[in-house]
Amino acid sequence: MTYTLWYWPEIQGRGEFVRLALEAGGIDYVDAAREQGSDALLADLNARHGRTPFAPPYLETPEGLVIAHVAAILAYLGERHMLAPSELADRLWIEQLQLTIADCVTEAHNVHHPVGTGDYYEDQKPEAARAAQTFRDERMPKFLGHFDDAAAHDESGAFLMGPRWTYADCSLFQLVEGLRYAFPQRMAAIEGDYPALMALHRAVSDLAGVKAYLASDRRLAFNEMGIFRHYPELDGA
Amino acid sequence: MTYTLWYWPEIQGRGEFVRLALEAGGIDYVDAAREQGSDALLADLNARHGRTPFAPPYLETPEGLVIAHVAAILAYLGERHMLAPSELADRLWIEQLQLTIADCVTEAHNVHHPVGTGDYYEDQKPEAARAAQTFRDERMPKFLGHFDDAAAHDESGAFLMGPRWTYADCSLFQLVEGLRYAFPQRMAAIEGDYPALMALHRAVSDLAGVKAYLASDRRLAFNEMGIFRHYPELDGA
């Protein structure tokens, strides 16, 4: 009953949203490329035919089902391991929030790679500076405000669904972590505007599975190969 | 038993992926902002509290459930109206393809708005030219090749699931339409490399519901306010 996660072994990236849910839920998994390296990930991806993942991360279930896309992986895990509510309206709301988180992650990546996904950041610095300003000024408040409203909605506890955490809570924790790493000045200036989201972040960091994971060597550090990158010239209050 | 779709009334945009599935499936819906205007859409969005959509499109079901995000809306309609297979592995595959389509749509939008989502295209033309080249040279072949493999997988018919269409087939039709509109030279140069995808596109255009919709005044024309925009300077073989 062990899952196999395939993702780049040097970065948190999009894979981290899956790792966090697995760790918080105490679900057995192998982080395959961390054991076998990037070449093994590429070899695995290239050996698949037919229903091939478009890109990592992808998760192989104990039964051999392969699922790509963070939102799809988490929806599956949510249903199977009760990491999300089962009632339709609640479950759909968590799925929508996860898709909005995915959009925010894509925009955070676009900040340092606005014009050439295949080029280095160093080759698109002026463009990145402009993209960063839009992201800091317009997009961060819009996304964070939305998630703060969602976190404030159920007053019976700090999580989106009140007293019980879901996979989307773990993802919001990671989003806040990533934004704090990439934009420390900007986050210091505005995060006080989002008290419910910050309380949610603290509550997730207190979950036993998350706490143990963050203290382990399984948790990679943020770095400038991932999605959330700290380039001081792209930050600002 | 009527759905209410809320989306910008002047453009195809992301809403078109929902419209097409509803039309192909012969499902009753009201395209609310086309009847009442953009101000009514904004008023509706602002009047919602609690579980508010992050952005249009969003769909209100006959029971009053509100769902945002194209992939979530289509997954819901797929299950309820049999616009997708019910077997788990098949259903998950269709959901993953839809999420990959969503990523391609986001990248197509990024081409003309790489550094400032709130700014005009005219204020980011050099950046857009560079983003367009990456998209044409690297990303279009990667996405189209992936979808062609998916279309070729089941040889018992032109659709992703062989003889029976799904909502993701409708979305692939729309993606090809959009790319042809935005990048006619590039598509003319490469679309012959993707025969299964092009056969799928033709098969969708022959569906009775789609054919009737495309011939009606409900189908808006592509224009330079939507996601797929034809700026000749961003195209090239």
UniProtKB/TrEMBL annotation, chains A, B:
Sequence ranges assigned to domain GST N-terminal in this UniProt record: 1-85
GO biological process: glutathione metabolic process
Keywords assigned: Transferase
Entry annotated with the keyword Cell cycle: no
PANTHER family registered for this protein in UniProt: GLUTATHIONE S-TRANSFERASE
Protein name: Glutathione S-transferase
Keyword Transferase belongs to the record: yes
Pfam families associated with the record: GST_C_3
GST C-terminal domain residues: 87-234
Source organism (scientific name): Sphingomonas baiyangensis
Single GO MF descriptor: glutathione transferase activity
